[in-house]
Amino acid sequence: MSTTDTTTRITVNSPDLMQELGRRLATLLRPGDLVLLSGELGAGKTTLTRGLGEGLGVRGAVTSPTFVIARVHPSLTGGPALVHVDAYRLGGGLDEMEDLDLDVSLPESVVVVEWGEGKVEELSEDRLHVVIARAVGGEAAPGAGGVRDVAHADAVADGAGVTDGDDVREVTVTGVGARWAGADLSALGPT
Ligand code: ADP
Ligand code: MG
Asked: Looking at the domain assignment, is residue 186 inside a domain?
């Protein structure tokens, strides 16, 4: 990472809000972009990608691919296709990804890669790196207690019962490379 990297951090209190973050993220993306999602299993990478697919207006439900490593969702609106890669199942890293031989033009698509922790070193220079972490117990970011109270109030208002701290995620979005230098990521933050 360099001094030109641009970063924003967002607290996300529910799966619905994670999906909404994905929809907001979609507004920043253009053909050829690579979005790297890292975080442990169950962090919310696929949930975020689902919103991203909605935002891009692509065909087909975004799910966790069980039997395939990558899935192509063509645009319904003349925009870029979404290529959704679940690299969590790729043992060998990016080399395997290049072997996928997808029947799609990557420069004309938005490529989203779900990645496990600690495997990002070899990826492309220009990328939006989204790190999703569970906010654990008292170790959440300063102010998270207040945010959690808001989540709780929303859940009660929805009749959805109590939302506990297990639903809180800290999302860090970093634009890496010339593509993202000086980019305004504020559209991702709370309104
Ligand atoms: P991953 O793709 O990172 O393995 P998924 O998106 O498939 O994760 O699953 C995330 C799980 O965590 C879902 O069951 C979702 O309902 C739950 N969850 C709870 N809180 C959140 C949150 N704030 N954001 C995203 N998912 C959440
Ligand atoms: Mg997933």
From this structure: no
